[in-house]
Amino acid sequence: MSKFLSIIKNKKAISWVLGFQIFRLILLPFMGLMPQDAYYYLYGQNLSLSYFDHPGMIGYMLRIFTEVFGQSIFTIKFADFVITSLTILSFYKLASYFLSKEKLQRAFVLLASTIFISILSFNSTPDVPLLLFWTLSLICLYKAIFEDKKLFWILGGIAMGFAFDSKYTALLLQIGLLGFLVFSNTYRKLLFSPWLWISLIISIAVTFPVWYWNYQNDFASFAFQSSERTSSISEFKISPKYFFGAIGHQMFLLLPVLFLSIITFTYKYVKRALLKFKLPQAKTLFLLAFFIPTFVGFFALTPIYWVKLNWMMPSYITGIILAGMFISRKLLKIQLLFSIVFHVLFSLQIIFYLVPIKSDDTWVGWKELAIETTKLQEKHPNTFVFSNDNYKTSACLNFFMDEKVFAQNIIGLPALHFDYLGDNLSDLDKKNAIFIDSDKQFKDNKLKGKNDPLLSKYFDSVKELAPIIIKINGKEVRKFWIFYCTNYKYKK
């Protein structure tokens, strides 16, 4: 009888997980192109050992999917969905090493019900492959350490390397591994095992393309990811806005029940370690080693630095397993209620675009902008198009338009990986251009009435044209200022 009840409970858990994934899959065709989708698609179309902002794993994955299924918005979203689904399955395998059947099912549903899984399923970012390889790394390291399977030291090294090839924060895997071994009385002896160091050497070897690209390009990517942030942190200006903003983001991504559960057990374990000098048993310590540095480490920065909402995502993998040890069936039901409400509201926003988004981080209007820009080029032949918002407008127009669209390096500003695409900007010398500037706040249909001073520096004349107004479902939702610029003056 108990075995029968266990099967029924297991089916319920699987049904919940499948329900959330089917819901996400149904929503995929309604999702428009996000700027991040377009930018990392650009990675894949310009293959390189690495890239300026991040390593290239997300670009390689999108390239594979678009080669197999063709270029489309759905293909890009489907790639994110498939990779994230593999992360969910890998999580289930990892969690099974630590939890009883009932708690495993709760953790499985907890993960699948979160908003962060929905974001990863819909939006191309380096976190999509990072979470997969992070989880696979932990599976391999568990088997290498707790089951003494030597092969998994090698596989773990490969997985850790691929995680770093996805995003630099994967370095916390090696830190977590060494931290666990240092603090574990039972497994500290593995610090002297050649297999550990073979694993670490393999993980570094797999990241060689990233290091070599940086070596070829004056370590531009490492400098970009570290210098600005280090200087901001070193200023040490307390900002409650950053702290409470981080809490709001994390509560949204995890939903209140799971977030508060994670905060509770974090406080419990940290307090016990600091005040009683007492560490948990080895398996729990293993989970904490890959949770504390990322979650607590980034949270500790929030009073003085704006920590992006996705930086803590790797910690969720072992964090949710730990939460599964404590969350009751009643709390799980409350979590599911929150999740259903949020996902229904989320789907209504995606399908009907009920609330205008005052930002370029949106999935609406890009295709329509590309159509209107093409018409502008027909009216003003022999012009090139460029924008000045880091990558968003330029990347989205590049996805939809046949002609090359340029970024702010046209007017001498740093332009992320657009600076490394190999474009010879001198070929554009003396050509006319159309400059597109997004009006993020969009309050009226008026002209901007002023030009960017840099435009006058690089062009003989600058004339503002009528803005492009994008309508969705009959409502005006986005506005782009348009400038016609003559006789580009290329400067080295």
TrEMBL record:
GO biological process: lipopolysaccharide biosynthetic process
GO molecular function annotation: pentosyltransferase activity
Chief location bin: membrane
Subcellular location per the Swiss-Prot or TrEMBL entry: Cell membrane
Domain Glycosyltransferase RgtA/B/C/D-like: 53-213
InterPro entries named in the record: LipidA_mod_glycosyltrf_83 (IPR050297), RgtA/B/C-like (IPR038731)
Regions crossing the membrane: 12-34, 74-92, 104-122, 152-183, 195-213, 242-265, 285-305, 311-327, 334-355
Cellular component aspect of the GO annotation: plasma membrane
Record Pfam families: PMT_2
Domain of life: Bacteria
Name of the protein in question: Glycosyltransferase RgtA/B/C/D-like domain-containing protein
Mode of membrane association: Multi-pass membrane protein
PANTHER family: MANNOSYLTRANSFERASE YKCB-RELATED (PTHR33908), MEMBRANE PROTEIN (PTHR33908:SF11)
Keyword RNA-binding in annotation: no
Keywords: Cell membrane, Glycosyltransferase, Membrane, Transferase, Transmembrane, Transmembrane helix
